[in-house]
Write a structure and sequence with these properties.
Layout (H helix, E strand, L loop, with lengths): L18 E7 L3 E6 L4 E6 L2 H8 L14 E5 L2 E4 L7 H5 L4
Antiparallel strand pairs: 1-2, 2-3, 4-5
The structure holds iron/sulfur cluster (2 copies).
The site of one iron/sulfur cluster has 10 residues, from loops.
Length: 95
């Protein structure tokens, strides 16, 4: 079955006020809190995702975006903590 997500990013472009990085250890390890549910979680970034996380090209136009969202090609967004994203993001289904 094809992936229904076209990576438009709309679900993440206004999440900055809810997803807070409380402490970072370099660029790759982040203690975070998801304020809507008060979930604390640890986000780890490695490999190609770390390179992408460091590359903020295109994101200045989206100041309200989740701090972990990046644009990997024009109009196409990518979650750099996909494997350690909070429960809310895991259970989100696009309608
Ligand atoms: S899940 Fe998010 S990025 Fe994917 S299509 Fe839906 S709104 Fe866009
Ligand atoms: S953690 Fe990932 S899926 Fe959740 S809001 Fe941020 S970029 Fe989107």
């Amino acid at each position: 079955m094809p992936d229904p997500c076209n990576r438009c990013g709309k679900c993440c472009l206004h999440m900055r006020k809810y997803l807070v990085i409380e402490q970072s250890i370099g660029d790759s390890q982040h203690y975070c809190r998801f304020k809507l549910t008060n979930q604390r979680f640890f986000a780890s970034i490695g490999g190609n995702e770390l390179m992408l996380f460091r590359d903020k090209n295109g994101m200045s136009a989206y100041p309200d975006a989740c701090p972990f969202l990046r644009m990997d090609s024009p109009g196409s967004f990518y979650c750099t903590i996909y494997s350690s994203r909070p429960d809310h993001c895991r259970s989100f289904t696009c309608s």
